[in-house]
């Protein structure tokens, strides 16, 4: 029998990360519900209806579905393929997957945004999650009913007095002054409960923590949504409310004019990003835990379909149609212009005013809490994987470090709570600017580094349905051009139309400067972590290659 080829003794292999050591989704239903949960959030029930109402007559749905078909589903499929291919190599963080598929340090640095985008979003999203939990409690305990009585007493004939509900949110969220939220023990308790829920679940792992929670939370969310929808659809005059949002205008020229509005196309594309969680690095991380021969093509379509059910069929039929019955056209337009106005000032008034509002208001805000919780969970897993596989930390130490970083960001938002300026700054930079850049890097990784052929082969592995061959061309050429045009339009709007916009505010507003500076620290820390991780990843790859060579030699020797 021939001797195996001599080889230099490799450096001692680092222990596998907790995620890389065999943690996988237990069931296909589990991973689909987890991905749907990461996508379904406040945007489905508040932002989407607001945009659909802003562009009346269903005009918004044209660019919405164009963006879904041309950008949303292709990019989602690309993320599924990239994630599982990286996961098969033992990597579960976005920088690690970028490095594994390219073997280049520079690509690992490009994957930085895939870690910091979701983590920074979590820093303020967990606060909104706490608001939803608080409002569910307010409805359950009758606080909203008391505000409704005050609103009715102060209302003029034929008008609605929303000031008690506006005052509640302004006071509870600490919008009056910086640090005012710290005077609300109830809010701080809700934030701590949300932190405990999120970090307690990710500490248990993908299958025992995230999957089990989503298997319970997503059916409960959908059940609550259908119960609330049934209540809304049985309200007297609901046809008028539905018409406010969906009836085509009598003037066809006005409808065509809306379709020529570039702002609507940009906002529709942004909504698709939020709807499907593309450009956030979430699908890549979740799909890296999918087993080798799972049908990710079908899972990707199923997850997108589940999200669209929640967004168009549930979110689109609950909020604006119900609000249209209780508000004037002017008040409705003003409410729909802001997610916070609609969600925490207008809808509490609407639910309180309808029959059985105490129960249905509780169910609505409880489903918002569940939607926020399933989304926020997904925002943490990628950074946790980086700490484990890149720095060699144990699960407990990685969870502790991530909790400390996230808590620092949430404290920043609470300290600079006046007018939610810190929250808005983080959301504008991360949720608007960074996601386009990250999505662009994903198209480069799939279309030019991995290549359409290998990418399509990954999607076809174990698939019952074949993905259209056109996908490779779309991700390689169409998506980058589409994203590039949107990015240029965004920069033009900020730099020219808004005279510097978000960039000028960094130099003129100390709160904005502090928020951007904090993001800079997070980015720097992540880059340093990746720098330390790359040598470790190189050793992991060398050991994997050595094992493959040995397996090949043994197979050849015994054949």
TrEMBL record:
UniProt keyword annotations, A-Z: Membrane, Transmembrane, Transmembrane helix, Transport
Sequence segments annotated as region (Disordered): 1-20
Comp. bias (Pro residues): 1-17
Membrane association type: Multi-pass membrane protein
Annotated TM spans: 29-48, 60-82, 107-128, 182-201, 213-239, 272-291, 312-340, 360-387, 399-417, 429-450, 470-492, 512-530
Pfam (any one): SNF
GO cellular component: membrane
Keyword Transcription in annotation: no
Location within or outside the cell: Membrane
Principal location listed in the UniProt entry: membrane
Domain of life of the native organism: Bacteria
Protein name: Putative transporter
